[in-house]
């Protein structure tokens, strides 16, 4: 049996505002974050079922590397969730504010 995949994540103290804002600046990633905020942990494929696998991997990797999400392997699945507590510790209210503003843009 092959070893389980592992993913590197920045420590809470290493999450920076410019990386988080960059990650949230792209509409596709922002929609992914909105879905995670609403649904909790999901299989990453649910974040973009119509996207090419390489595109999905690129965007979820960027979200992970910026500290916005936590990714873990579960068998063949790649489970992903928002790092709500860590983001709230570093930047209180940021994700809620960005998501609220994104909703206004859609109206």
Automatic annotation (TrEMBL):
GO MF annotation list: DNA-binding transcription factor activity
Domain HTH arsR-type, first and last residues per copy: 19-96
InterPro entries: ArsR-like_HTH, HTH_ArsR_DNA-bd_dom, WH-like_DNA-bd_sf, WH_DNA-bd_sf
Protein name: Transcriptional regulator
Organism: Corynebacterium kalidii
């Amino acid at each position: 049996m092959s070893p389980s995949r592992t993913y590197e994540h920045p420590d809470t103290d290493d999450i920076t505002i410019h990386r988080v804002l960059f990650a949230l600046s792209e509409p596709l990633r922002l929609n992914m974050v909105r879905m995670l905020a609403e649904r909790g942990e999901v299989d990453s494929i649910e974040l973009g079922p119509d996207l090419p696998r390489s595109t999905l991997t690129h965007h979820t990797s960027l979200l992970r590397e910026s500290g916005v999400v936590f990714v873990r392997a579960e068998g063949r699945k790649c489970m992903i969730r928002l790092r709500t507590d860590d983001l709230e510790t570093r930047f209180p209210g940021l994700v809620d504010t960005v998501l609220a503003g994104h909703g206004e843009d859609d109206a």
